[in-house]
């Protein structure tokens, strides 16, 4: 029994004489899973900098990023997507890392605004991390200060494309 | 007293109900786009014929997003979208108005190095993507049709 | 128009003759007073109680490495009088101790804590001078001092 | 009873960019300590590294929620240092931008307050009406949120073609909406019970702690820089300063709401009265003010902001001190969070309209 539970946990339980885990590598199933992932990108509420007013605009009815399944969700254990909303200071950098580590795999990161991409306006500041990609891997870069909601949505679309292609 | 409380709670419900029948507010972005204003500050676009390579844009830039590079022994600005804060000072203070901030806002990339626009890439005004169906005018969306809420 | 401001300057000069280094009306609604730091608390209390300067606006440190001193500037607004006074005092750079004004205006609490963190000016009598804005493990000195150099080129 | 220390933030839907240390006894908060600095960018130090015009986008990032008013104080201080008087038309345009910015910021703040009391519809409506003014901003300045529109010497652009009609149409509509808001939001039983008597800040305490802006006016102090020390075109415009006596969360929301009405009226008057003329006096690209210092005060949406700028005669400022409104209001937060239920903390925090960006600078 114990062995079975552990097998279930690892996703390789034998059912009808073949391993379920291997189904994931079968192309139609893989595509289906990626499609499902791409359209339910729940995102984390982690405000790091000044792009947060546009978060409101994106989440509310005019641009409504929820059309693409990116619902800002309170619990990061259930989230797939981490938005880095602008400037990441050195104090915040540790928290960004902790937040990223807590999220379940597969997880994706979108860096919004040029402070998150390269330090931007704070290229000489004593307390700003020069680009969030020094701490965590970034999938999509969205420039702007802050990016327009449309640019934001374009970033989400790019990420969806990336997920659906299985990259 | 109790009656007024109930009214105060029911009133919003009624108001929200009325809004079901109003004009739709959401812009279905990738298929429909909002028309941006003429002054909208997107990516700068360079006019090579007008540029004299004076370097005012690189001097005024608060972010050091613009650097001057040599192309065929002339100096032209090279632009890094990953650094720009889109303040528009480079275009405003440009002596010959060779820089214009109308290169659009769809600049997202997978790779950071694609965000750097050398002069030959900076001259291009991005064409509208083919999946676009319609450009929504600001006026139509806003008030002439009544309420803008959904 | 400028009567109230001059009255403030005159009163201060008469009451604390030796300790007021300089007092002048900068412009309308702006008074600058430079005092010696020994009697800072008393002058501040006099400003609050007798001249109705009740609303603290800002506390800023300024670093002058050539003169080897810090300037600490308290800007205080008076709600009834509608005048802003800049109460300045200087602190030697090698021994930056100043008595805290938290007993006079409680609003200086976080301002003084910030000034301590950024300049290293120690406010005696402040209840809680601990890390505030910078990261917990900051060890690169006091960032707002002039000898703290920033990068000159982006990375 | 044992006292437990709870950390709240920075990864929390309500907390924003900071964290609190809460000492809780059961459900009652005994003591609260803010843990700030998560967005400390060192604006004051960075500003010493740039020229006066390059600093405009830098100081704007103090609080992008209210970008119009934040830069206002900076450019005024630089103009005072340089001893220049800006044209009349530029003053009016600045007034219009400042008031629109106030509307945008208040709508955002009230929307967040609506979340804190569980009123998500209101958030949607407020944020959507915010778009009306963001469109106007885009028309006028070319950006939705970060305008960089004021520079020392005036403003960058004149009012565009058709701005008057568009603005008037939107203001008419917005005024109609405000009546709805009052009925729906401020007369609502749910909202009243959740905010009345929460976080009461008395008049003496407000002054003692140095609280500014709508929070101070909600405690019954009539202090507003626009009246005390009129800048731009505020001395030629007729408006009142809404105050309340109670000093609780409802009063703070109410003051912000009435300020929306006043802002609409100010924009109308300014658009009607605006004179013709130049919008900018000639200022070199790298201005070099003479030696001196200036302290400029401006009423932003969250309260008075003070810029203390010292010039040493070079083309970069010697020292820029930003006395930001939320930093001054921050002291009220631990004061109000003593002996209250933990569920009231979001209401207190969002009714004070504290923005961590503004606190950290």
Question: What is the gist of this entry?
Answer:
The complex is a heterotetramer of chains A (167), B (150), C (155) and D (361). By secondary structure, chain A is of the alpha/beta class. Chain A is built from seven helices and seven strands; from the N terminus they run H-E-E-H-H-E-H-E-E-H-E-H-E-H.
Characterize the structure shown.
- The complex is a heterotetramer of chains A (167), B (150), C (155) and D (361).
- By secondary structure, chain A is α/β, with parallel strands linked by helices.
- Helix content of chain A is 40%, strand content 13%.
- In chain A, the strands form 3 sheets. In chain A, strands 5-6-7 form a 3-stranded parallel β-sheet. A two-stranded antiparallel ribbon of chain A has the order 1-2.
- In chain A, strand 1 and strand 2 form a beta hairpin.
- In chain A, helix 3 packs antiparallel against helix 7.
- Chain B has 5 helices and 7 strands; from the N terminus they run αββαββαββαβα.
- Chain B has a domain of 84 residues: 2-Layer Sandwich (Alpha-Beta Plaits).
- The radius of gyration of chain B is 23 Å and the shape is elongated.
- Chain C has a single domain, classed as NADH:ubiquinone oxidoreductase Nqo5 subunit (Beta Polymerase, domain 2).
- Chain C is elongated.
- Chains in contact: A-B, A-C, A-D, B-D, C-D.
- At the A-D interface, helix 4 and helix 5 of A face helix 5 of D.
Give the SSE layout:
The complex is a heterotetramer of chains A (167), B (150), C (155) and D (361).
Chain A (H helix, E strand, L loop, with lengths): L1 H9 L3 E2 L2 E2 H4 L3 H12 L4 E2 L7 H8 L12 E2 L7 E5 L4 H13 L5 E5 L1 H5 L21 E3 L6 H16 L3
Parallel strand pairs in A: 3-4, 5-6, 6-7
Antiparallel strand pairs in A: 1-2
Helix pairs in contact in A: 3-7, 4-7
Chain C lengths: L2 H13 L4 E8 L2 E6 L4 H10 L5 E10 L4 E10 L4 E10 L4 E3 L8 H12 L2 E3 L31
Parallel strand pairs in C: 2-5, 6-7
Antiparallel strand pairs in C: 1-2, 3-4, 4-5
Chain D lengths: L3 E5 L10 E7 L2 E8 L7 H5 L7 H6 L6 H16 L5 H29 L3 H21 L9 E2 L2 E2 L7 H24 L2 H7 L7 H7 L4 H4 L7 H4 L20 H25 L18 E9 L2 E9 L5 E7 L1 H5 L2 H5 L3 E2 L3 H7 L4 H5 L1
Antiparallel strand pairs in D: 1-2, 2-3, 3-9, 4-5, 6-7, 7-8
In what order do the strands lie side by side in the largest sheet of chain B? Answer: 3-4-6
Low-confidence stretches of chain B: 140-150
* Rg of chain A: 18 Å
The first-level CATH class name of the domain at 39-122 in chain B: Alpha Beta
Order of helices and strands of chain B: HEEHEEHEEHEH
Helix content of chain A: 40-55%
Compressed to H and E, one letter per element, the order of chain A equals HEEHHEHEEHEHEH
List the chains of the largest interface with their residue counts: A-D, 34 and 35 residues
Strand order of the largest sheet of chain A: 5-6-7
Binned, the helix content of chain B reads 10-25%
User: From the helix content, strand content and strand pairing of chain A, which structural class follows?
Assistant: alpha/beta
Radius of gyration of chain B: 23 Å
């Amino acid at each position: 029994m114990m062995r079975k539970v552990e097998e279930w946990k690892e996703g390789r339980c034998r059912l009808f004489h073949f391993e379920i885990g291997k189904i994931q590598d079968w192309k139609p199933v893989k595509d289906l899973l990626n499609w499902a992932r791409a359209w339910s990108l729940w995102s984390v509420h982690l405000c790091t900098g000044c792009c947060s007013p546009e978060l409101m605009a994106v989440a509310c009815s005019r641009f409504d990023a929820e059309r693409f399944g990116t619902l800002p969700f309170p619990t990061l254990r259930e989230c797939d997507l981490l938005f880095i909303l602008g400037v990441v200071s050195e104090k915040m950098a540790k928290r960004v890392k902790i937040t990223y580590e807590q999220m379940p795999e597969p997880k994706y990161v979108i860096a919004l605004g040029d402070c998150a991409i390269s330090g931007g306006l704070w290229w000489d500041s004593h307390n700003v991390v020069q680009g969030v990609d020094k701490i965590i891997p970034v999938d999509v870069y969205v420039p702007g200060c802050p990016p327009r909601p449309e640019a934001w949505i374009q970033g989400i679309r790019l990420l969806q494309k990336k997920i659906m292609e299985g990259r | 007293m109790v009656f007024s409380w109930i009214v105060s709670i029911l009133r919003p419900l009624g108001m929200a109900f009325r809004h079901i029948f109003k004009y739709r507010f959401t812009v279905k972005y990738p298929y429909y786009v909002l028309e941006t204003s003429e002054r909208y500050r997107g990516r700068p676009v360079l006019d090579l014929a007008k540029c004299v390579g004076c370097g005012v844009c690189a001097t005024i830039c608060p972010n050091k997003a613009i650097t001057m590079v040599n192309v065929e022994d002339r100096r032209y600005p090279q632009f890094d979208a990953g650094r720009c804060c889109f303040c528009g000072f480079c275009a405003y203070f440009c002596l010959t108005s060779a820089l214009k901030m109308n290169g659009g806002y769809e600049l997202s990339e997978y790779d950071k190095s694609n965000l750097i626009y050398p002069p030959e890439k900076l001259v291009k005004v991005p064409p509208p993507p083919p999946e676009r169906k319609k450009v929504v005018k600001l006026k139509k969306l806003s008030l002439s049709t009544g309420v803008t809420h959904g | 128009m400028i009567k109230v401001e001059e009255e403030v300057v005159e009163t201060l000069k008469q009451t604390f003759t030796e300790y007021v280094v300089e007092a002048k009306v900068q412009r309308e609604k702006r008074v600058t007073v430079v005092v010696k730091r020994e009697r800072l608390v008393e002058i501040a209390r006099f400003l609050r109680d007798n001249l109705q300067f009740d609303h603290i606006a800002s506390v800023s440190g300024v670093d002058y490495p050539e003169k080897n001193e810090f300037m600490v500037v308290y800007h205080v607004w008076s709600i009834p009088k509608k005048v802003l006074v800049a109460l300045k005092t200087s602190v030697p750079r090698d021994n930056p101790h100043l008595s805290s004004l938290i007993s006079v205006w409680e609003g200086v609490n976080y301002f003084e804590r910030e000034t301590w963190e950024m300049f290293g000016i120690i406010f005696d009598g402040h209840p809680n001078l601990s890390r505030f804005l910078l990261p917990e493990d900051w060890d690169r000195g006091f960032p707002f001092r002039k000898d703290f150099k920033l990068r000159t080129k982006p990375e | 009873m044992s006292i437990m220390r709870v950390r709240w933030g920075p990864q929390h839907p309500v907390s924003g960019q900071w964290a609190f240390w809460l000492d809780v006894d059961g459900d009652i908060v005994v003591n609260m300590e803010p843990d700030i600095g998560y967005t400390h960018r060192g604006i004051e130090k960075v500003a010493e590294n740039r020229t006066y015009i390059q600093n405009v986008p830098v100081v704007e990032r103090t609080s992008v929620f209210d970008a119009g008013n934040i830069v206002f104080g900076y450019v005024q201080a630089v103009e005072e240092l340089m001893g220049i008087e800006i044209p009349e038309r530029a003053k009016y345009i600045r007034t219009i931008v400042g008031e629109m910015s106030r509307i945008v910021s208040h709508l955002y703040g009230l929307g967040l307050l609506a979340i804190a009391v569980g009123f998500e519809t209101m958030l949607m409506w407020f944020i959507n009406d915010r778009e009306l003014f963001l469109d106007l901003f885009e028309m006028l300045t070319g950006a939705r949120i970060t305008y960089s529109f004021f520079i020392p010497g005036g403003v960058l652009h004149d009012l565009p073609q058709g701005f008057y009609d568009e603005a008037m149409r939107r203001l008419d509509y917005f005024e109609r909406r405000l009546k709805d808001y009052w009925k729906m939001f401020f007369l609502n039983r749910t909202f009243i019970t959740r905010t009345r008597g929460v976080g009461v800040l008395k008049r003496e305490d407000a002054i003692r702690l140095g609280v500014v802006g709508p929070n101070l006016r909600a405690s019954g102090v009539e202090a507003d820089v626009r009246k005390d020390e009129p800048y731009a075109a505020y001395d030629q415009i007729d408006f009142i300063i809404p105050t309340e006596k109670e000093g609780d969360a409802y009063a703070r929301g109410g003051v912000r709401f009435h300020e929306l009405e006043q802002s609409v009226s100010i924009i109308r008057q300014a658009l009607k009265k605006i004179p013709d003329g130049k919008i900018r006096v000639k200022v070199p690209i790298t201005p070099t003010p003479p030696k001196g210092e200036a302290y400029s005060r401006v009423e932003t949406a969250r309260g008075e902001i003070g810029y203390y700028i010292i010039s040493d005669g070079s083309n970069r400022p010697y020292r820029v001190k930003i006395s930001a409104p939320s930093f001054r209001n921050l002291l009220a937060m631990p004061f109000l969070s003593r002996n209250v239920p933990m569920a009231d903390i979001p209401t207190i925090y969002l009714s004070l309209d504290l923005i961590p960006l503004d606190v950290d600078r």
